[in-house]
Amino acid sequence: MRKDFIMSAKRGGTSRVLRKLEVSVEEGKYYEAHQMYRTLYFRYMAQNKHAEAIELLYSGASLLLEHEQFGSGADLSILLVEVFQTSKAPVIDENIDRICELFQLIPQQVPERQTFLSNSLSWVHSMKPPGTYISRLHQQLGTILWQEKNFFGARYHLLRSNDGESCGAMLIDNHTQKGLASEVDLFVAQTVLQFLCFNNKSTASVTFFAYTAKHPAIMSGPPFVLPLLNFLWLLLMAVDKGQVTVFTVLCEVYHPSIKRDPTYNMYLDKIGQVFFGVTPPPPQNGPQGMLGSLMRSFLGGEDSDAPDSPLEAEEVD
């Protein structure tokens, strides 16, 4: 498919145009090159030459970003996603890689970066591709943000992937750099519970064991010294076997550990519904009821793969 795509672009003369624009950028004529990219973009779109427009914008955005023309490069990146949306371009590995490569080239402080990311996620979700492609996109985005030490965003995206190894390693990095010693169990607990709420028990398990096996402050286990880690370990086994009685007993026995974070009970309510067929509790009034509504909205929204922004989702995580 990539070969056919490139051949089509070359037949339209795009390769010659790209070379001329590349020379212009290399000579430092950034403004002129940016305007020419935009002019050609509009011309191609008017002629429904979507393949040529994609090749033009991807090449131009990459080149300008590599030359530290971040505003212009981000502008062409956003236009690229618009072409994806207009042409209903398929969500395939090549296009996912393009999105992630440009996202990595745009610095964090550039305001258009978030617009580019949000529009990219909107395009992906609108196409309703197989879940493996969505997972791969989030995995790559999470890894990029982790490398930038943006643990907030990294956690958001890795939580929507199937890469438990990377998620566990990122949580270790996050805790050792920003957490308290007393929070070593809390950093993994929330993520494991959220994976289970998303009905992703395999990645929840991989994340848990990657974290506990490699964290320098967790010396042994299972069983573990910390009660909350033992609870998570036993919970994963109960989920795997569908043992509702064991689930109920675990929640009672480990209540002192669970109540360390008020959101844990809400996650466990959802886990009980997903894996054990437990009837959801009646809605409450007051602050607890409001928090519960936010949590249910967040967890329910993920089922439809809504492209929430990392910050907005983390506010209710």
List the main descriptive attributes of the protein structure presented here.
18 helices, 317 residues, mainly alpha, elongated
What does this structure look like?
The protein is an all-alpha fold and 317 residues long. The model is unreliable at 300-317 (pLDDT under 50). It has 18 helices and no strands. Helix content is 74%, strand content 0%.
- Work out the number of β strands: 0
Q: What order do the SSEs take from the amino end to the carboxyl end, as H and E?
A: HHHHHHHHHHHHHHHHHH
Which overall shape is indicated by the principal axes computed on the Cα atoms?
A: elongated
Major sheet summary line: none
In helices, the fraction of residues equals over 70%
Q: How far is it from the N-terminal to the C-terminal residue, by CA? A: 40 Å
Mean pLDDT comes to: 88
Point out poorly predicted stretches: 300-317
Radius of gyration: 23 Å
Indicate the multimeric state.
Answer: single chain
Which structural class is indicated by helix and strand composition? mainly alpha
Number of helices: 18
Strand content: under 5%
SSE layout:
Elements lengths: L1 H10 L2 H13 L3 H17 L3 H17 L3 H18 L5 H13 L6 H16 L3 H17 L3 H8 L5 H15 L7 H12 L3 H14 L12 H15 L2 H10 L1 H4 L4 H14 L9 H18 L6 H5 L3
Helix pairs in contact: 2-3, 2-4, 3-4, 3-5, 4-5, 4-6, 5-7, 6-8, 8-9, 9-10, 10-12, 11-12, 11-16, 12-13, 13-14, 16-17
What is this entry, summarized?
The chain has 317 residues and is mostly helical. The chain contains 18 helices and no strands. It is elongated and about 70 Å long.
